[in-house]
Specification:
alpha/beta, 7-stranded mixed β-sheet, 5-stranded antiparallel β-sheet, 12 helices, globular
Length: about 525
């Protein structure tokens, strides 16, 4: 490719899509590389009866050993682990969940859209652990304010410091009677509650909200099936000059040139590209401080007794909500720092794993509790630690001959204590609401399964201890920006996508400003 572009964007998900949306609008000639094919959901999505599938919906065993979200209906969405391997210590598994399609993980995200607060941005000031971000909440407010209308985020303004209010479509939906009882129990225990805050629309993805506008400007060249091997650099100036990539299908090698590069391939993939390129690591911290949010799925599964046997009044069941972090805000827990949140919902039917019987007795028990369930899932903050890291494993390569990542992360005493507290608190809230506790546990999913991997290319004010400055620009290379979740210094219990979008919008506008000043 002989043409030199103003900006090369790698990745087409939340960060890559927002970079393209912003940069093309401001006049930059951009080329976007994505490792997966272009899709048309309207034409390619079909309904198939389960009887027509060879494995009756469960999928061929062994294809996605670490993608618990995958089944036979959605198998084409997830990155095949045989083509895209990685390694980890056998005793500490990591579940790296990837989508290699244009649109990235926004094709399957849950659309939860929470702002971070200064409890995250200035976390060290609050409890003394870790590092502050080089920005404060006030620095991102103008960008949050612009992202939320674009993604049509709905919710309620509650005035909670830990989840700041935004530009929201008002959620005026009514609560069912069982949810009202649960909310009353939460109020009794001084636990805050609210409606979900969620991007609305059928898809709400980069594919339908960001990329079409970028393409319409005439300033975006989108190249699908482009697997980036490494970035190229001018040794004389230290500037990044483009990227070497492999065609996913033909395996032909290409190089594309650009005056600036924006990496948004997702947290771990962007870090893998930088490590394979031997760039942006004068600090020695590239790849370190990997973290996510831990989940305890169905931390408590309860039954609303009046709903047993199909006897629920019409307005008793249904609906749910969100409990934001409430620990370690104004007071301090003796067992752990930071905090956790819950999703809760009603009207589910507990699965057979909740009963010790089988056969006809099991069917009767499940029929009796059909639609009578009330459950909560914990989302907890994970502490960023230097010893949680990724490195290149040069003994193993992917299907395109590119060295893979070795990933090392495990939960520590702080996360375990938090998970156990979340179980006990959820049980107490349900009991005071008059629900029957069917089961409880505090077993966290393996690291990575939340699909909220963060860190490894962190921001910071000091180039000796960080990779990026406050505008997602690498300290080592002025014309290289990294805009996905790898830039996070801490993450809270909130889903990170809204913050990734706001950071990318901010970084992209800064890139254009610096380019106009010839500072790149």
């Amino acid at each position: 490719m002989k043409t030199e572009y103003d900006v090369l964007i790698i990745g087409s998900g939340a960060s890559g899509g927002m970079a393209a949306h912003t940069l093309t609008r401001l006049g930059a000639k951009c080329i976007m590389l994505d490792a997966g094919p272009m899709i048309d959901p309207d034409k390619q999505r079909v309904l198939r009866p389960v009887a027509d599938l060879p494995y009756r919906g469960f999928g061929k065993p062994g294809r996605f050993p670490h993608v618990t979200q995958a089944n036979e209906f959605s198998a084409n969405m997830w990155a095949d682990e045989k083509q895209n391997p990685y390694t980890y210590d056998p005793g500490n598994p990591y579940y790296w969940v990837r989508i290699r399609l244009v649109g990235g993980k926004t094709l399957a995200w849950g659309r939860a859209s929470w702002r971070l607060s200064d409890y995250e941005f200035k976390c060290k000031d609050h409890d003394g652990f870790g590092d502050n971000w080089p920005i404060a909440y006030k620095d991102l407010v103008p960008f949050y304010d612009r992202v939320e209308p674009l993604f049509r985020v709905s919710g309620r303004k509650e005035g909670f410091e830990q989840i700041p209010d935004g530009v929201l479509l008002p959620d005026e939906s009514r609560d069912s009677l069982c949810v009202q009882r649960f909310l009353a129990s939460c109020k009794k225990h001084e636990v805050p509650t609210t409606k979900q805050r969620r991007s609305t629309g059928t898809l709400a993805s980069s594919l339908n909200l960001l990329l079409p506008d970028a393409i319409a400007t005439g300033n975006l060249t989108l190249v699908p099936n482009a697997v980036v091997r490494e970035l190229s650099r001018d040794k004389a100036t230290g500037k990044v000059t483009g990227a070497h990539f492999v065609d996913r299908v033909s395996k032909r090698e290409f190089h594309v040139k650009a005056k600036a590069v924006v990496l948004g391939a997702s947290c771990l993939e962007s870090t893998r590209i930088l490590l394979n390129s031997k760039l942006a690591n004068s600090s020695g911290v590239l790849g370190h401080y990997l973290f996510d949010q831990f989940y305890v799925k169905n931390v408590v599964q309860a039954i609303v007794p009046e709903a047993r046997g199909g006897n629920a009044p019409r307005n008793l069941m249904g609906g749910g909500g969100y409990i934001p972090r409430f620990r370690n805000l104004k007071s301090k827990s003796k067992d752990f720092i930071r905090g956790y949140a819950y999703d809760f919902g009603s009207g589910n039917t507990p699965g057979p794993q909740y009963y010790s019987s089988y056969g006809e007795k099991l069917w009767k028990q499940m029929a009796d509790s059909q639609g009578a369930g009330f459950s909560l899932t914990t989302m907890g903050e994970v502490l960023p630690r230097f010893e949680s890291f990724v490195r290149i494993n040069r003994m193993k390569t992917d299907a395109w001959g590119i060295p893979v990542l070795h990933i090392q992360q495990k939960y520590t005493a702080n996360e375990f204590a938090m998970a156990k507290d979340s179980m006990n608190t959820a049980e107490e809230l349900c009991k005071d609401a008059g629900f029957e506790i069917l089961a409880k546990h505090w077993e966290m999913v393996p690291p990575g399964e939340s699909i909220h991997e963060l860190g490894t290319c962190r921001m910071g004010s000091d180039p000796k201890t960080s990779v990026l400055n406050q505008f997602n620009q690498t300290h080592d290379h002025k014309n290289l920006f990294v805009v996905d979740g790898s830039s996070f210094v801490s993450g809270g219990a909130q889903n990170p996508t809204l913050t990734i979008l706001a950071l990318t919008l901010r970084a992209s506008e800064y890139l254009i400003e610096q380019a106009k000043k010839n500072n790149l």
